Amino acid sequence: MQAEVKGTTMPILEVTLDQGEEVVSTHGELAWMTPNVQLRTGAGGPAGGGGGGGFMQGLKRAVGGGGIFLMHYQGPGMIVFAAKVPGHIMPVDIAPGQAFLVHRHGWLCGTPGITPTVGLQQSFRGGIWGGDGFVLQRLEGQGRAWIELSGELTTYDLPPGQTLMVHPGHVGMFEGSVQFTVARMPGIANALFGGDGFHLVALTGPGKVWLQSMPLPVLAHALAPYLQHQDNAGAQQAAGAGVVGGILGDMLGGGGRQGGF
User: Fold this and answer.
1) Cα 46 from chain centroid?
2) Chain center to CA of 131
3) What are the φ and ψ backbone dihedral angles of 69, each rounded to 5 degrees?
């Protein structure tokens, strides 16, 4: 298997599979592929073993932001996965007994030995989260995973006992050895946060953390006023066009009747 990340601002991951080699992802991640790649869907891993864990594991995976079923792409052939927002695609090698926790939409694809499941689900009431809350996927097993992180990346190697307080949306990925808790900051509760206060994630070493500069919930919140403005403008434009169309119709209709008499 050969995998190459191409591009800069909106990168793609191009994977070339030899006969019998396989890569797995959740549904909807595929960008394009050659026609000789074989596809199949399953809740478990590939024939003969691998990550997935069956239907119950699929339910846990769905809670973690993925889908119940995994898409299996088998070579020979080429398959491409594309970033959904400006950012980075990075490979992560996972060994037995090791785990990584990534943000809800972070896992792009992986080799069949990777097992994705839910790592944390914390509900927040509306606000900038849109009801999605704070969800982490847990990746374990054995193999290589490719992770999509949005915006620019900053990494920290936290020694034992050192803590970073991080806005939940900026949490991109961290090693399973890092301890984490979600803390509500007292005294800050308003309409922006849906009355649920302001939350930070406490990440405590030892372990490595990857923080992303452009979280999707924050980006969506920043774009919402402009999208609403466009919707209102579109509605007004449609209404105006309807009025103009009605006037023209009356004029043309009246002209026709005059001609008939």
Assistant:
1) 24
2) 15
3) -105, 150
Mean pLDDT of 168-174: 92
Position 249: which residue type? G
Q: 118: which strand partners?
A: 137
Asked if 74 and 16 count as a contact pair (C-beta separation under 8 A), the reply is no
Most confident range, picked from 58-72, 89-103, 176-190, 231-245: 89-103
Reading the block at residue 146, the tokens are 């490719």
Enter the DSSP assignment of 3: E
pTM strictly above 0.90? no
pLDDT digits over 225-243, tens only? 888 765 555 555 555 555 4
With CA atoms as reference, report the closest residue to 143 among 106, 91, 107. 91
DSSP state of 170: G
Pair 211, 156: CB distance under 8 Å: yes
For 186, the token pair is 């007292």
Distances (CA, A) of 158 to 18, 134, 168, 184, 240: 39, 22, 18, 22, 59
**What's at 139, amino acid-wise?**
L
Domains parsed from the chain with CATH numbers:
2-221 (3.60.160.10)
Q: Which residues pair with 175 in a beta bridge?
A: 100
Count of CB atoms situated within 10 Å of the CB of 177: 15
Rounded CA gap, 61 and 116, in Å? 6
Rounded average pLDDT over 168-192: 79
| Tokens, residue 217 | 């919930």
Tokens of 67: 């889908």
